[in-house]
Amino acid sequence: MPKLLEVKNLHTGFYTKDGGFVHAVNGVDFTVEQGETLGIVGESGCGKSVTSLSVMQLIPPRAGRITEGEIWFQGENLLQKSEKEMCALRGARISMIFQEPMTSLNPSFTIGFQLMEPIRLHQHCSRAQARQTAVEMLRLVGIPLPEQRLREYPHQLSGGMRQRVMIAIALSSHPDLLIADEPTTALDVTIQAQILELMKETSRRLNTATILITHDMGVVAGMCDRIAVMYAGRIVEYGGLYEVFEHPCHPYTQGLLASIPRLDRENETLHMIPGMVPGLGHMPAGCEFCPRCSRALPICRAEKPGVYQATGQGHTARCWLYAPKEV
Questions:
Q1: Cα separation of 151 and 32, whole Å?
Q2: What is residue 327's predicted lDDT score, i.e. its pLDDT?
Q3: Are the C-beta atoms of residues 54 and 71 closer than 8 Å to each other?
Q4: What is the mean pLDDT of residues 134-139?
Q5: What is residue 8's three-state secondary structure?
Q6: Most buried residue, 114, 146, 241, 244, by most Cβ within 10 Å?
Q7: Angle in degrees, 0-180, between the axes of helices 111-123 and 159-171, rounded to the nearest 10
Q8: Which residues contact 157 (CB under 8 A, 6 or more apart)?
Q9: Mapping DSSP to helix (H, G, I), strand (E, B) and coil, where does residue 235 land?
Q10: Quick check: 236 and 317 in contact, CB under 8 A?
């Protein structure tokens, strides 16, 4: 399949109050193919959301900037585009679902206004045509009485309904790439399952590629074709769903999978990864995960590992344990 999105050596950082500059994303590489779902998983603060905001070119200029790298989308380098060009691309060819719909939807405007606005902007259609498309999108995402919902405000809808509206807005222009940043945060388990199934079905129907950002390995297992595990601003393991789940290589990935409760085991004590994620301004000299790793080697404390082949083609790990013997 052709590469829809290709991110190469991405570095994104932020200014600090004392006049310094720290990197939240350090040398991230991944690709997304047409119609597939890539899961980016890791603890809070590992750089998942910053990576997605970098792709969308939504890093506030006064807060931070992309310092290095390339972001290729359908053969075009997004880092060379102007803000005007990016505005035309966002919502039309690349859409994003943010974490909390109540803060993403404007409480002062109706659902209909907020759904019809991007449709009219990107499809250049009349108000009547936009309204018809809006009704069809609400029906597509499973919202009952869509004509009535168009007249309602965000506070009149439940959390699950608001998230469905966000999905409808994101998919209204049939984008080639959908970025979903923790789309089921703060929803109960039943609604989470419904939202994830809805995203899977609509992406399949529209042949939309998806980047799913989450900290939940269970969500990744049910949604994704490939997985990128992030830690401290770097992708530490990358590969297909089966390879990563059946043969996890990086100690951090192994720790994440071991911490998932298992119904087939009784009286099991949940695994815990010791320590905390290091602060952006206090990264270790060697491997970022070294202070928390039970398999650390002497070289791990002194030098940062490269990306090495793990169990199979396309399955890589950023860990000295998989370095060639001559390294």
A1: 37
A2: 46
A3: yes
A4: 91
A5: strand
A6: 244
A7: 10
A8: 111, 149, 165
A9: strand
A10: yes
Q: Which is more confident, 149 or 275?
A: 149
12: tokens are: 């994104």
Which residue do the tokens 């609400």 mark? Answer: 138
Question: Residues near 166 by Cβ (< 8 Å), separated by ≥ 6?
Answer: 97, 98, 101, 104, 105, 183
Pairing verdict, β 94-97 and 234-240: unpaired
Instruction: For 132, list phi and psi in degrees, rounded to 5.
Output: -65, -45
Q: What is the mean pLDDT of the chain?
A: 89
Amino acid at 32: V
CA distances for 207 relative to 37, 176, 202, angstroms:
11, 8, 8
Q: What are the structure tokens assigned to 152, written together?
A: 């309602």
Enter the tokens of residue 51. Answer: 């990576």
- Secondary structure element (H or E) that encloses residue 123, with its range: helix 111-123
Q: How far apart are the first and last CA of the chain?
A: 34
Least Cα distance to 234 among 166, 303, 110, 317 occurs for 317
Mean per-residue pLDDT for 97-105? 78
Can you tell me whether residue 159 is helix, strand or coil?
helix
Would you call 185 exposed, middle or buried from its count of C-beta atoms within 10 A (0-12, 13-18, 19+)? middle
Q: How many other CB atoms sit within 10 Å of the CB of residue 223? A: 21
State which H helix or E strand residue 60 sits in: none
Q: How high is the pLDDT of residue 164? A: 87
Contact call for residues 33 and 210 (beta carbons, < 8 A): no
Cα 42-223-306 angle, rounded to 5 deg: 40
Q: C-alpha distances in angstroms, 91 versus 14, 70, 119? A: 25, 21, 9
